[in-house]
Amino acid sequence: MCIQVQQITYIHPDKEVLFQNLSFSVSKGQQLALIGNNGCGKSTLLQIISGQLQPCSGTVLRPSAPYYVPQHFGQYDKMSIAEALGIDGKRKALHAILDGDTSIVNFNILDDDWNIEEKATAALNGWGLGTMSLDQPMLTGMELQETSVILMDEPTNHLDSQGRNKLYEWVKKCRSTLIVVSHDRTLLNLLPETCELSRSALVFYGGNYEFYKQQKELLLSALQQQLNEKEKELRQVRKLAREVAERKDKQNVRSEKAAPQKGISRM
Fold first, then answer.
1. Cα–chain-centroid distance for residue 143?
2. What CA–CA distance (Å, rounded) separates 267 from 247?
3. Looking at the whole model, is its pTM more than 0.90?
């Protein structure tokens, strides 16, 4: 397994329980759309899986640090693009070596990634973000980090139509383990599996968002039919109870009429 979530619970400081004793696993290369009602904890769960947030109890096992694309980019406003993309250390080591500092520390940090700047430039150009603002760089890092696990929280929120189309094409080609939280139906339908988060479980559906909707409609229809049958049974029971009560009342009336009348004495 690539990711194992074991009995995790998360409770807000205000004592609200988001989810409790939640367990599931994600296999290597599995790609999922994570959906659920607003406020159910989808973003919180992504942060826990990424290691950005600790659960109140339980554990998360993962082979390597996932590449996490958060919903809000405000925490990167004071960072350079290289810092936001996680390549600042390698760039500094590269330039230190080029400037003559050949210490083993710099070579270890660079890790033979001599063309890191060329890859960064190519990734930025590929996304059409050569002049991008600081609230948009995180998506390009997916092509730079070559990580095996990618977590994305509403990744299309800050993209224009061209950027969204570029993301769609990237998802189609992606072979990494991928978990995506989004309200973008087009993006959700590109993912082969859908999972729905609730307080006590993560339910997996073997299909994209449209398949999930169909399955939910079938489930709701079946539940509605069961409810209708229960209501029908309840009406029949109530009708039978009324009939029994009416027969009993009629029997009581007949019994009263058939009872002998007591004589009245006169003085």
1. 23
2. 42
3. no
